[in-house]
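User: I'll paste a sequence; please echo it back and then give the predicted structure.

Assistant: Echoing your sequence first, then the prediction.
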Amino acid sequence: MSQFTMAISEMAQGAVAPSILPVWKREFLYARDPPRVTFPHPEYDDVVHTEKNIIMIKEMTEKSFFFGPTEISALRRFVPEHLKGCTTFEVLTASLWRCRTIALQPSPEEDMRLMFFVNSRGKFNPPIPVGYYGNCVVLPCVVSKAEDLCNKPLGYALELVMKAKASVTEEYVRSTTDLMVVKGRPHYKTDSTYIVTSLTRGGLNKANFGWGEAIYAGPPNDDQDIPGLFSMYLPSINDNGEYGIVVLIGLPIPAMELFINQLKVMLT
């Protein structure tokens, strides 16, 4: 998406062709013959539907949260020594998942799922061409009992996130592609699920269609089929001129109050 947007931006400013020429070879990521699913993919596992694992979508509310250097440093205070090498994405994602779960107050034995989009372009050997327009994004899934997620320190959730992210290799992507063939392109499960994606490096805020760079590049609201399921990390600048990440969170009203209080504990 960002590659296409930047191409249109360049041509709107007079370029006769985009600086990164498109590559259309969809066969780069064809399924293998025969297909071989070599990794577990819990994001597509069947889930038993109960009232406990369905977020009530009535009386939902939305709130944006800004995470600049000060906020990220505050979250890192809870990171154990052996995980100090975690990225901003990893510590932020683990923190939001944990705070969100505490706020929703699920059954202790409920399986809570976290999914996040990973760009796999750099995982291949030989590498995927720079201008490739096919889908190179996969959606690894982390699963934890609610009791563990709520009661154990942040390091527990953080380690799960880091391991899932590190598991995305070329073989993992091939396994996902083959699963699409074996299971007939199943949809990921949304029960007790939180999905995040980061657009902080996509460059959408740098797109210039002739009247300057974008002030904001992201969704206008939390308009989703399942409210509160999905959060985007977007580049932003706060009132003090600090660069950071803004995250839109959607939750039932009582849960939002608990979420804000839990997050405040971590940030102060």
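The CA atoms of residues 138 and 173 lie 7 Å apart. The mean pLDDT is 90.
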